[in-house]
Amino acid sequence: MEVTRTVTVHGLKEAAAGMMVFSMEEEVLSREETWRQSACDIYVFLMTGGDAFIRHANVSHYHASATTLEHPHALWNYNAHYILLFDSGNATLSPSDIATLYNFKKTEKVLILQQREKHLLAWTNQLYAASSSLTLLDTWRDGKFHRGKSLFPEKLNDLHGVVLRVATFDHPPSVVYVLDDHRHIVNRLGVDMQIVQVLAKSKNFSVEYVEINPDDLWGFELDNGTWVGLVGKVYYELADIGACNMFLELNRWKQVDYSTPYNFERGCFAAPSPKPLPNWKSPAMPFTWDTWSSVVVALAVSGGILHLIVAIGVSPELPAFRSLSHNYLYILGALTMHTLKTVPLHAPVRVYVGCVGLFGLIIATAYSANLVAFLSVSPMSAPIDTLDQLSRSGLRIGSHAFWKTQFDSSNEPVIRGFGKILETGVDLYSLFDEVEDGKFALIENKQYVELAIGARFTYGSYSSIRIVPECLLTYSIGLAYQKNSPLRSPFDGLILRLFESGVIYKWQSEVVAYFRAQHANKRLHAPESHTKPLNLAHLQGVFYVLGIGSLVSALILALEMSASTQQNAQHSPLPEKCFN
Q1: What are the helix and strand counts (H, E) for the chain?
Q2: Which tens digits make up the pLDDT trace of 399-422?
Q3: pTM value?
Q4: Which of 23, 69, 177, 249 has the fewest CB atoms within 10 Å, i.e. is most exposed?
């Protein structure tokens, strides 16, 4: 076996062939080069004193290097082979002391050789053990090992009931908390929890759940560089595993390691569904505003053309057609299929009036046919179907701080714009109520949004919140491990088999059905629609038109009466006494 590195505590002064021998004077334990992984990583420690080595092995060195490296790693190589040699004269340090050290609890390939008079004892450690736990592997005597067992046995297939800490929080359908009447957690359901439970049963470990603050959720980086939330718990090694719909992406990878993906999801926006428009707008709804503008322009132009044809005509027309106001009323009547009973005398005017009448017939028929639908069914506002429409909707955007990093790194200007207005200090559960009220739009993974809408905001066949069809890119979902965690390799193999078997999708459908059933009796159901006669609410727009028309007519009548009074006053004869 080739030895690529050897570190001695109170070290050796001579180097053996094929070995690199260092002494503590060179401070090799604090060098990054000492702990970088290579093709054959073997560390041999001659434990003649070991105080400095124990101090180094009993703390996490990952954070000491994280701020200075572009790709940070711990000042410890968890994947290497470690051989520790204890001589018979060392009375201050024993193999059991090694088993309790922080970094050795997460190092799988450890061999401790202890000299006893005429033989050697080969010990190894137990991973993640709460107290000192050593296993005697073999005994070297008479030039050979007597049991012939592997000196670096596989330890992660059976963790012997050790406790692993799992950070999580309630986030359906990935994690669903089952609560009792006192709001105490009695069970945890969901795909992520099922995976953790299968891992625990297969690898023989117990689970201690670490709850995440509802304000932090997956976690984000504070201004001072501190991480909070699920990522923070794993990053600061307060939890061994993070499990709750963890998106695999670059910013978090610098703090945690990821498992192999077991699910895939897209980030989608939840926006208010189209709202019913006021019924008084119904008379204007059959045409769009550009159509109404075109009709008004056609009325203005047609009345002027009629007056011009009558003015330049060779043959005199009826006196009524010489009035500009009469001609506009005549065209307006044609557009409403109620023309004045005055019939032009000559062909040019008749042809023009006939063309205007045909135009009015088509416009009035189209309007009348479409008006029935808008009077009987409440018109709805335009839905938000694209991210560009969402950016111009005026809605506030709210979600977790994770999405800001995603928006800021996008190449699309519209998506980058969301990062500038994103509000992160929000509670996702209550934020849905703000979305329903038409104040907010929120972004989260599609499964979570669909489940929340179906369970809480679906009334009969109507949903007050909808998903914007245009979503962001697809994200892979996995577990979060501590950096250099030995759990990754054995756990990933089992996770991959679960994914390939399709059982994950079965778990997902089961928890969705459970969650919806729990909220089914809390949802309001809209009354079934039946054919109903039109009421005043449907026809209020028509009455508004009648009222506005009456007011305009009364105003014109008042103006005419005022003008007529002034005209009569100007032409009335003076009193006789003025001539005396």
Answers
A1: 18, 22
A2: 988 898 889 888 899 999 999 999
A3: 0.70
A4: 69
